[in-house]
Amino acid sequence: MANSSEGTHRVTISDIAKRAGVSKGAVSLALNDRPGVSDETRKRILAIVKELHWSPNRAARALSAAKAGACGLVLARPARILALEPFFVELISGAESELSERSIALTIQLVHTVEEEIAVYRRWWAERRVDGILMVDLRTNDPRVEELRRLGLPAVVVGGPVRDDGLPSAWHDEAPVVADVVRYLATLGHTRVARVAGLGEFVHTATRTAAFLDVTSELGLAAEVVETDFEPESGARATRKLLSRPEPPTAIVYDSDLLAVTGLGVAHQMGFAVPDDISIVAWDDSLMCGLVHPPLTAVTRDIPAYGAAATKLLLATIDGHSPGDIVTPRGVLTPRGSTGSARAAQRESAPTN
Amino acid sequence: MANSSEGTHRVTISDIAKRAGVSKGAVSLALNDRPGVSDETRKRILAIVKELHWSPNRAARALSAAKAGACGLVLARPARILALEPFFVELISGAESELSERSIALTIQLVHTVEEEIAVYRRWWAERRVDGILMVDLRTNDPRVEELRRLGLPAVVVGGPVRDDGLPSAWHDEAPVVADVVRYLATLGHTRVARVAGLGEFVHTATRTAAFLDVTSELGLAAEVVETDFEPESGARATRKLLSRPEPPTAIVYDSDLLAVTGLGVAHQMGFAVPDDISIVAWDDSLMCGLVHPPLTAVTRDIPAYGAAATKLLLATIDGHSPGDIVTPRGVLTPRGSTGSARAAQRESAPTN
DNA sequence: CTGTTAGCGCCTTCAT
DNA sequence: ATGAAGGCGCTAACAG
Fold first, then answer.
1. CA separation for the pair A42, A30 (Å, rounded)
2. Cis peptide before B323 (omega within 30 of 0)
């Protein structure tokens, strides 16, 4: 009862100053480790700061520094998809590792459309609620890029590159990784391969598809690409379509782990054995790939590192440096049980549904 | 070139006031829809506000209102687990639906331990970075509850109840739901059932376990509970242990969808057919449950609604009202392909590994 | 009904 | 080396 107001009272710099018998300015100098105050006084002040458990008030600091002390991330995919895409949470975890060090907050908002996303950027920046943002799911001719530039809101794109003088980005060329995957399948003897892609408007989807078609044609493989909107239902449909062909592919590369797991379920359901009848490769590796049976061969990227790199770049951009793009480490193929030799699959025609 | 500073200049209330030929105070009154200014002037002011695209500066508003305009959520589970637990993203999406309406931000932080979590609360509150927080994964004798009360940081627990005069919470009694699940299995003829539980320190785990043992004993079923730490490896071990018994259970209820999917993989791997040899029930339904083969019978809750209810309660708490706990709708069992009659399973002994 | 004023808590000039 | 003063943008309590 006696201390009931303990949690309520705020310690301010004035309190410190009063207690130390100096001015507010002196305290400020001492706190920021700048000259203008004697060593002894500084020590005394810092001791009192500790004793009184003083912490700077973010709002006050933000106001005087004209910095929000926060970065933003807007996600424009349906929540139930996001919930299942480990990519985003891992990205967030990587971003945080950079931010929390500098005690910058991460503000997240989920929206439904790109238009809403842009509206959020406008509001955030108008209110100076964030100092910069991380942007994901870059599209070809993405309207967000121009808008962000117009606003002057510091931003970094996760997964570029953004053409011309767009925005800085953290990315790596995925074409060689696609080539690795296709060559791996070719080595296993597959001659009919397919790709279940994500949304074609996304730059990363388009890049991977182009590379896929290039490499397969170079190797003389029969190739097919089916686009989806990343929704599991859509992925299931794509898989069903592919496996219903008179001569179905013997290997399918999916554009996310979620799509791959969906494909695995559909294959099972249609009576295809994995990997004997059909090999499956996931893009982006998460725990989920290892949980299902058989465990999925996947392209593994260190996504938290990806998020951390992008965040580092963002912080530099906010600070006014304008470093070039950051190239992140490329993904590597992690073979697991879902891929196998094509011989079994080709020996006989596919099972009927 | 001419407009190059467009994105940089900030419009303030002073600008509006100058332009309208009134004082800042008048503008403030007009903006906040409060009396003290004539209707005509108000209109004129609002028009200028629109014309100049004015938005309030959060930092300034926060400073003068002594409100951060943000709520916090700290998650203390490993990122790679969080990434796969749809629960959290869905919870966030529900929370946001409430927050964004009032244009309150959601600040998220991932940490490793409860101690770190508490440290974040202290810092956030000391800095007035948030106005309140949503707390998850309540434990028995949870140290966070006392600390939050001591700090005076407004908080709501998602999934209570918190005993005594702890903190307000949004929750529902899960015992009846557990009973439903067990009765459902009993009706299918199962007599040996097991539960792969989460962390026993979590209140919801303890509640479900107690209910599970109660109901099974009441129905005369052989029951066993194995605890895990929610990690897939740990869940896999538990499943392996159960299925290696001389008389293995014919049905297992898992404490999350992630654990259930893991269990399904292990069962497949050990040569158990699902649901013929072993029935599987997941707790918390997400897309993932429908993707695997066979699709998992699961306890379905409207988690976004849960998050929204908790957030509503939090906002009320912040505003100084102290409403009682909110009781959220209970989960319902959604039967799918992973549960079946026990007859097949009991007819013969379990397959060997 | 209007306009002026004084803070919110911090930082950064300036004089001293 | 120190202290006093002013401003960041907004709100609220005053006078006019």
1. 5
2. no
CB-based contacts of A312: which residues, under 8 Å, 6+ apart? Answer: A98, A326
Which residue does chain A place closest to B127, by CA atoms? A57
Which residue's alpha carbon is at the shortest distance from the C1' of C9? A60
pTM above 0.85, yes or no: yes
Task: Answer whether B106's CB lies under 8 Å from B71's CB.
Answer: yes
Is B260 in contact with B296 (CB distance < 8 Å)?
yes
CA-based nearest distance A230→chain B, Å: 13
CATH 3.40.50.2300 range(s) for chain A read: 70-167
CATH 1.10.260.40 for domain A13-55, yes or no, is yes
Divide the 353 residues of chain B into consecutive groups of 10 and give the mean pLDDT of each group.
42 84 83 79 86 88 90 90 84 93 92 95 94 95 94 91 84 95 97 96 95 98 96 95 97 95 94 96 90 93 93 93 88 96 62 46
Q: Where in chain B is the domain with CATH 1.10.260.40?
A: 13-55
A-chain residues near B89 (CB < 8 A): 79, 82-83, 88-89
Report the nearest residue to nucleotide C14, CA vs C1'. A25
List of chain B residues whose C-beta atoms are within 8 Å of the C-beta of residue A129: 58, 105
Per-residue H/E/C for B222-287: EEEEEECCCCHHHHHHHHHHHHCCCCCCCEEEECCHHHHHHHHHHHHHCCCCCCCCCEEEEECCCH
Distance between the alpha carbon (CA) of A36 and the C1' atom of C15, Å: 14
Nucleotides of chain D in contact with protein CB (under 7 A) are: 1-14
Residue A174 tokens, joined? 């995925």
Partner-chain contact A232 B287, CB within 8 Å: yes
Q: For residue B286, give the nearest of A84, A88, A92 by CB distance.
A: A84
CB–CB contact A290 B129 (8 Å): no
Q: Which CATH architecture has domain A70-167?
A: 3-Layer(aba) Sandwich (3.40)
